[in-house]
Amino acid sequence: MSNYIKVFTGDIIIAQRIISDLKKENIIPVVKDQTDSGLIPIFGSSNSILKQVFVHKDELDKAVLAVENITSELQS
Measured between alpha carbons, how far is 66 from 74 in angstroms, rounded to an integer? Predict the structure, then answer.
């Protein structure tokens, strides 16, 4: 993973939007769950609600612009 840089950590819904926009820019992101270690709740649902989005370091500048556009749009 040394060639990949994290560009976003956050809610799964926002992460999905970022992933979609990155793919439109021909950037293939790597997505990881940010899970807590420990027991899974009895209900069987995962306690992973945060996603981490990584991109290859060669695509970082383009990816950061896309992430900034989405996050600023959502804050407006």
Answer: 13
Q: How confident is the model at residue 56 (pLDDT cuts 50, 70, 90)?
A: very high
Residues 6+ apart with CB under 8 A from 58: none
Domains detected in the chain: 4-37+48-75 (3.30.70.1530)
How far lies 74's CA from each of 4, 14, 57, 65, in Å? 25, 9, 25, 14
Residue with tokens 């945060």: 50
What pLDDT, on a 0 to 100 scale, did the predictor assign at position 35?
A: 62
Whether 37 shows a pLDDT value over 90: the answer reads no
CA distance 66 to 39: 36
Half-sphere exposure of 8 (CA within 13 A, CB side): 28
